[in-house]
Specification:
Number of strands: 11
Number of domains: 2
Low-confidence stretches: 83-93, 103-109
Strand order of the largest sheet: 1-2-3
Mean pLDDT: 78
Largest sheet: 3 strands, antiparallel
Structural class: mainly beta
Shape: elongated
Helix content: 10-25%
């Protein structure tokens, strides 16, 4: 099984950017860039009667830098907070359900 030997964090904000040294199963060491946006959910609200979905138009800096496009039409999304200490999730609640406007009473729950 591969193993992360070192990981240098270059940026920590709403996302993280790091450089990792990884030891592969055959003993070879490789270096890889890791961009981590954390956990997020996306909700596509859909009206089947009108056959329409609700989207938002937002400015996205990478898209603007790469193509000069000022905005992007996309589904509504929510970023989930994470506990950085171990890199695991610590959501303190059902963020996906809250973002969808739910109350916990849906199939499968």
């Amino acid at each position: 099984m591969p193993e992360i030997i070192t990981r240098e964090f270059l940026h920590r904000g709403w996302n993280t950017f790091s450089i990792a040294t990884i030891r592969l199963e055959d003993g070879q060491h490789i270096t890889r860039s890791i961009e981590d946006h954390g956990s997020a959910i996306c909700v596509l609200t859909y009206d089947p009667v009108r056959r329409m979905a609700l989207l938002v138009r937002q400015f996205r800096a990478p898209l603007f830098a790469a193509a000069g496009q000022e905005d992007l039409l996309e589904a509504i999304a929510e970023y989930q907070k994470r506990e950085r200490r171990y890199g695991g999730l610590s959501d303190g609640g059902d963020h996906a359900l809250a973002a969808a406007g739910g109350n916990g009473s849906h199939p499968g729950r």
